Amino acid sequence: MSRTPFIAGNWKMNKTMAEAAEFADAFKKQEIHSKAKMAFCVPFTDLAVVKKAFEGTEVGVGAQNVHFEDSGAFTGEVSLPMLKEIGLDYCIIGHSERRQYFHETDESCNKKLKKLLNESSIIPILCVGENLDEREAGKEEEVVSSEIKADFEGIPEELAEKVVIAYEPIWAIGTGKTAGPEQAEKMCGFIRRTFASLYSQEAADKLIIQYGGSMKPENAEALLAEPDIDGGLIGGASLIPEKFAAILNAAK
Ligand code: PEP
User: Closest Cα partner for 68 from 60, 57, 80?
Assistant: First the structure.
């Protein structure tokens, strides 16, 4: 089964609007000779700027979160109708930083996935992964399968297969520690088998699974060469046009 690689940047809480526009100008000058799909998931304040800057190009644009209600007394939150008006392609759901610092739960991830899948064509990028204690206790598969089962609860196959899953071991995010290609492949293969057991082999064969956790130009080629790793979710290295372009070019 051939799947088109997908490399997405997660800018986290970085770049003002002026910096975002400057980044877009610099990124458009990079030589990209990869057929991989690409996108940047940027802060809410940068969405319209980045969307406009990449209009008419192959670059997709995504948000990093969405609320599951349409409107109401949810100070500081942003709703799906607000995102739809910008014309976004992607939205990250359940990033470990949101789970850790903002009490995002599998239950809220499930509601957000349902909201996006039922009411928009915005593709969710669902993040799952174990922390260091869980990895050291040998519980990584248990943690990841429990997240996947809870996050996809009640979502039918025809919608579930639109989701991109990012395997992000928390101990490798922003730490400079990367899961080795074999370690990352083992977990991405496990995620595909878990998805097949929930849905079907056919759906699992189509599923795009990214690896995320200190991916950079130096390690991207080896990670992306693994059969179950279909792309990357890139934090730090997505802030630098040359580095993100080099990762894209490593995706064959
Ligand atoms: C991320 O934010 O999803 C991520 C993987 O970050 P980094 O590449 O900086 O580890």
Answer: 80
Residues 60-91 have pLDDT tens digits of 999 999 999 999 999 999 999 999 999 999 99
CB of 43 closer than 6 A to ligand 1?
no
- Is the pLDDT at 132 greater than 90? The verdict is yes
Superfamily of domain 6-250: Aldolase class I (3.20.20.70)
User: pLDDT digit string (tens) for 142-169?
Assistant: 999 999 999 999 999 999 999 999 999 9
Long-range CB contacts (< 8 A, 24+ apart) of 243-248?
A: 243/216, 243/217, 244/7, 244/9, 244/27, 244/30, 245/27, 245/30, 245/31, 245/32, 246/217, 246/220, 247/7, 247/215, 247/216, 247/217, 247/220, 248/7, 248/32, 248/34, 248/36, 248/38
Distance CA 211, CA 234 (A): 9
Active-site residue, from 97, 147, 161, 168: 168
Q: Would you call 168 a catalytic residue per the annotation?
A: yes
3 state DSSP class of 26: helix
**What residues does each domain of the chain span?**
6-250
Which structure tokens are listed for 13? 């809480």
Kindly report, residue by residue over 3-27, the tens digit of the pLDDT. Answer: 999 999 999 999 999 999 999 999 9
For ligand 1, atom 2: residue with the closest CA: 235
What is the model's pTM?
0.97
